[in-house]
């Protein structure tokens, strides 16, 4: 695994915009960077693929154990979300996608930092933009990226008929991610309908779209914990609507899954020690809120820092990201359905990856 | 008393995600990445305004069917907090219809709405309440925070 400095394509901005990627530059700074790329060898990609499949299996096993033993309080979940989770798990509601954030230096086993199992973004960049980039700059190289075709195949499995898509469309990243998923759903042969999350209505019997048609299956790029805190939450159990991601994904997108994974599978090479109490993890740790997003609320505590045990926080052993050219690189490993499907690399000057971190394309030879 | 879902689940039932995936692809890269509608327009952006819905509530089925055709009335609990004089109780409701109070409270009512619309005086047999379906019940958290991860 290495970072190579390369020449960007001429007119790269126009090239990425031509395929629908409008937020390549944020606040005047590049979000998409193609003046560098990450290069892996085949065995490293195999390692990432195997670790992702293994971790996803562990997560599925963990969900089953939590549901069967009712350990929702340890994830800060009350009665209502617990009922939804149980119902969706026992109804076998399928999932569409997720992204694991891994610390991987090319040599040591990848370590799971968190599983963005509910509302992962940077999907379009990983699936489409870097694929077109490879076609242009290194068509003879390979790329761990079959996200697009796996998404289309997955839609054929999980959805028939009409699927509604809801997001906060005033946010370009959310809008692009959701519209891309809508596109793949359309290519899978489904009917699709988009609406802003605020435009969902309640008829008294069902959630409805702007034409007052009942919504039978909804993809929402909107976190479950937010849905559950809002006025329409009371209607969810009786609505009969199917959700993507399903409610049981609330267990995996919650950082409190990390101590439970460590408890269920102690010493697993792809997991890090984690606990809800700082003193239970030796050495430097990363304090993470249960429901934090995009690096929000994450604090690194050095070995001699006791910190304070905050409610709804977990403490995970620090697994420093590898640094190349002064940039901390994070591997986002995509799961479509239940299969590993590809990676996207984000990098930052800081050791905490945030929503301002840059996306850098990758390939392997 | 709530139903105990766990008690009904046989121990051998497994979520489909437990099943092993098929053989991995020999290649790692998508054969082709084609886009259909993306890029042509902002798909998800649609105009919104004046899309609230409401229905008339009645004290009896007879009163409801005085205003609507038989079969259009249902017995239900109110959706909105202002939707009934008897909190949590049942009423008979006509169908939902789009409303916009700027144009009058019953514009768009698909039924005759005779009792309310007659303007000849309320007889005591017309709608006793209005129940308001709503939009905007999701999305408030998204205005102040990042969404994706």
Structure overview:
The complex is a heterodimer of chains A (365) and B (149). The N and C termini of chain A lie close together (11 Å). In chain A, strands 5, 6, 17, 18, 19 and 20 form a six-stranded antiparallel beta sheet that branches. A four-stranded parallel beta sheet of chain A has the order 8-7-11-12, covered by helices on one side. A four-stranded antiparallel beta sheet of chain A has the order 13-16-14-15, covered by helices on one side. In chain A, strand 7, helix 6 (172-187) and strand 8 form a beta-alpha-beta unit. Chain A has helices at residues 12-18, 42-69, 79-90, 123-137, 147-158, 172-187, 224-227, 236-239, 257-264; strands spanning 2-5, 25-26, 29-30, 36-40, 97-103, 111-116, 162-167, 191-196, 201-202, 207-208, 217-220, 242-244, 274-275, 285-289, 299-301, 313-317, 323-324, 327-336, 339-348, 358-360, 362-364. Chain A is an alpha+beta fold. In chain A, 52% of the residues are buried. Chain A contains nine helices and 21 strands. In chain A, helix 5 (147-158) packs across helix 6. Chain A has one domain (2-254, 321-364). Chain B starts with a helix and ends in a 14-residue tail after the last strand. Chain B has helices spanning 5-8, 61-67, 114-117, and strands at 53-58, 74-76, 91-93, 97-98, 129-135. Helices cover 10% and strands 14% of the residues of chain B. The chains are: A alpha+beta (365), B alpha+beta (149).
Task: Summarize this entry quickly.
Chain A is an alpha+beta fold and 365 residues long.
Distinctive features:
heterodimer, A: 365 residues, alpha+beta, four-stranded parallel beta sheet, 9 helices, 21 strands, B: 149 residues, five-stranded antiparallel beta sheet, elongated
